[in-house]
């Protein structure tokens, strides 16, 4: 399924040629549309020639309809398409500055390149100016790094913002563009051709333009009716390989491996606990986040997980493995990377790093499948050495009511893995850190 | 001495219909997303070229400034970026189309009231402002507005309105440049 993973091709001629070919198409179309002529571009701002608006918005709606049509019919995985992350304030300020540069210089960076390539001297000067401006930015950005990184919202689309389906937003976008084109035609007739207002036909004549507009709007409606792939649809794309991995226990990582990863300062380890609140309060790993199965299907939550840095490893755990594996499937389907299940779940964890006997005892018979197999006398949450075996024991284990003597704080345990706990048996390392394949966009 | 034949300058062909041009651009953009997962762009690649030039002059400086070092510090090759090839392609594509349509011609396009030199100065100045703004906004008109707009990024639409807003706000004051 598209987009294709081009990383194996990196540093080969084929890789460079693909981007060269896309650039060729881009440059040729810009030139064909008249974007190599500064006067034509500047005329946009005097409402005489609306070519810039027409070309740009036609391109946006045509590309949007095609992208979401391909996504709706499961030809393109939109999750792997680069969406420019939103940095609202620097984006708006940068945009205003660019608007000034546009009207003063008569180009934007891409169009000036095309102008320069057809020997327009003003284009060549503009390109030199862009190189200088880009250089000036590189030299000065350190002085306002805070503003440059401010209002970061990550991958944030209009459907996310409005809470509407993608197809509905695409229909709205096409309708908005058609309305703008209608206004642009009127503006050109009035300001460009100097036609008297009463002589301008208010409605476009039926013809090729209106037919093309109808086709585009029709395709947008198809996108809306078809809908984007659900989580379950997306699971079918990866089910075969993912189920095989589950069968071979390639994604179930040993508790000792989790402890070792938590000690590695170069990694971020996130533990998602999918048990109910009562069990979570009885005991959970320090730093664990309790989520429900609905959270795992919530786009906002998944977006946050996906936006985590490249060195993040996510573990899902339940009391056993059954619920954790279900959530693992849901998140895996949505493209969360570096996702593992804690082997043996919390029960297995407590077997390996048991709490004191007056905190919890192993139950004779667990209450059911994927139920907590330990009876806790008190709800300790993460206030137990068992919740963070990678740290030295700083707090004493809560004592039994009838036992006045505090339990020994594991001073003697010294440093190293799992303070105060016996060394783990050998285990097979499962975690392989995978880099995100969606890389920065051409302009990012 | 025979009479010198006047050089025949054939008129450039007209530009294509903007809606057709836009539709073609949309298809190119879609293909870019479909094949590579990325949109189109120019300014990031210009940034990489700029850092490559800077590295020739002063590699230590590139290593020391965090923003530059991310692009070309140490053993990183600043030109080892797919956008650089896209930039080269854009240049060649524009040139081929210009040649085919008789628009490949050394000239300066300017407003009727502006001298050639003044146009050059303003082009350089405009480019400088544009280059600075493009990096602040993390993308130019193509990389941020066009590519981000097509995949419905909120920031890209805010950016797009800001560009048009800035242009229209200043257009009246600099009208002598273009009218």
Q: What order do the helices and strands come in, and which of them pair?
A:
The complex is a heterodimer of chains A (444) and B (179).
Chain A: H1 13-32, H2 38-43, H3 51-72, E1 86-87, H4 88-105, H5 109-117, H6 121-140, H7 145-148, E2 152-154, H8 158-162, H9 166-192, H10 208-226, H11 231-247, E3 252-253, H12 255-263, E4 268-273, H13 277-282, E5 289-290, H14 299-306, E6 312-317, H15 322-333, E7 339-342, H16 345-352, E8 360-362, E9 374-376
Parallel strand pairs in A: 3-7, 4-5, 4-6, 6-7
Antiparallel strand pairs in A: 1-2, 8-9
Helix pairs in contact in A: 1-5, 3-9, 3-10, 5-6, 9-10, 11-15
Chain B: H1 18-36, H2 43-57, H3 59-64, H4 66-72, H5 82-100, H6 116-136, H7 141-150, H8 154-171, H9 175-178
Helix pairs in contact in B: 2-5, 7-8
Structural class, judged by helices and strands of chain B?
mainly alpha
Share of residues in helices of chain A: 40-55%
Q: What's the total number of strands of chain B?
A: 0
Low-confidence stretches of chain B: none
Task: Please write the string of helix (H) and strand (E) elements of chain A.
Answer: HHHEHHHHEHHHHEHEHEHEHEHEE
Strand content of chain B: under 5%
Major pleated sheet of chain B: none
Radius of gyration of chain B: 20 Å
**Which two chains share the most extensive interface?**
A-B, 137 and 126 residues
Order of the strands making up the biggest sheet of chain A: 3-7-6-4-5
How would you sum up the global shape of chain A? Answer: elongated
How far apart lie the N and C ends of chain B? 45 Å
Query: How helical, in percent, are the residues of chain B?
Result: 55-70%
Contiguous helical run count of chain B: 9
The dominant shape of chain B is globular
User: What percent strand of chain A?
Assistant: 5-15%
């Amino acid at each position: 399924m598209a987009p294709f993973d081009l990383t194996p091709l990196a540093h080969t001629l084929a890789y460079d040629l693909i981007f060269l070919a896309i650039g060729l198409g881009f440059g040729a179309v810009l030139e064909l549309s008249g974007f190599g002529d500064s006067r034509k571009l500047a005329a946009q701002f005097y409402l005489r020639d609306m070519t810039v608006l027409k070309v740009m918005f036609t391109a946006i709606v045509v590309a949007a309809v095609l992208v979401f049509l391909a996504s709706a019919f499961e030809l393109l995985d939109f999750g792997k398409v680069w969406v420019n992350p939103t940095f609202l304030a620097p984006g708006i300020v940068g945009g205003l500055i660019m608007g000034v540069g546009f009207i003063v210089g008569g180009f934007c960076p891409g169009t000036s390149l095309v102008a320069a390539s057809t020997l327009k001297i003003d284009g060549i000067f503009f390109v030199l100016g862009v190189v200088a401006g880009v250089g000036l930015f590189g030299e000065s950005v350190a002085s306002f790094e805070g503003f440059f990184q401010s209002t970061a919202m990550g991958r944030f689309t209009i459907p996310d913002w409005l809470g509407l389906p993608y197809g509905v937003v695409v229909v709205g976008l096409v309708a908005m563009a058609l309305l703008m084109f209608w206004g642009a035609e009127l503006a050109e007739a009035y300001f460009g051709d100097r036609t008297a207002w009463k002589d301008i036909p208010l409605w476009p004549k039926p013809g090729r333009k209106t037919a093309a507009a109808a086709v585009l709007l029709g395709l947008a409606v198809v996108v809306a009716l078809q809908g984007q792939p659900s989580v379950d649809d997306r699971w079918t794309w990866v089910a075969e390989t993912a189920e095989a991995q589950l069968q071979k226990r390639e994604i179930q990582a040993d508790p000792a491996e989790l402890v070792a990863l938590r000690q590695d300062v170069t990694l971020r380890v996130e533990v998602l606990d999918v048990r109910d609140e009562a069990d979570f309060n009885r005991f959970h790993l320090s730093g664990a986040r309790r989520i429900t199965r609905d959270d795992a299907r919530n786009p906002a939550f998944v977006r946050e997980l996906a936006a985590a840095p490249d060195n993040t490893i996510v573990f899902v755990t339940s009391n056993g493995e059954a619920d954790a594996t279900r959530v693992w499937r849901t998140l895996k389907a949505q493209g969360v990377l570096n996702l593992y299940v804690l082997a043996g779940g919390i029960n297995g964890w407590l077997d390996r790093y048991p709490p004191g006997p007056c905190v919890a005892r192993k139950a004779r018979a667990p209450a059911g499948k994927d139920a907590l197999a330990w009876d806790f006398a008190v709800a300790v949450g993460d206030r137990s050495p068992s919740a963070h075996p990678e740290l030295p024991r700083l707090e004493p284990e809560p004592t039994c009511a009838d036992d006045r003597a505090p339990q020994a704080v594991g001073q003697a345990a010294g440093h190293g893995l799992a303070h105060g706990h016996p060394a783990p048996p050998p285990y097979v390392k499962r975690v392989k850190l995978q880099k995100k394949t969606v890389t920065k966009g051409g302009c990012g | 001495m025979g009479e010198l034949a006047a050089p025949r300058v054939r008129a450039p062909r007209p530009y294509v219909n903007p809606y057709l041009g836009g539709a073609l651009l949309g298809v190119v953009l879609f293909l870019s997303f479909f094949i590579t997962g990325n949109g189109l762009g120019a300014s990031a690649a210009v940034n990489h070229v700029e850092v490559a030039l800077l590295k020739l002059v002063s590699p230590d400086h590139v290593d020391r400034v965090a923003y530059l070092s991310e692009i070309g510090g140490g053993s990183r090759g600043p030109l080892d970026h797919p956008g650089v090839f896209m930039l080269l392609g854009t240049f060649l594509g524009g040139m081929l189309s210009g040649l085919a349509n008789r628009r490949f011609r050394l000239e300066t396009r300017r407003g009727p009231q502006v001298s050639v030199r003044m146009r050059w100065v303003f082009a350089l100045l405009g480019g400088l402002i544009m280059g600075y703004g493009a990096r602040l906004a993390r993308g130019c008109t193509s990389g941020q507005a066009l590519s981000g707009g097509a995949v419905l990024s909120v920031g890209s639409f805010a950016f797009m309105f800001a560009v048009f807003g800035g242009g229209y706000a200043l257009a009246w004051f600099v009208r002598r440049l273009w009218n």
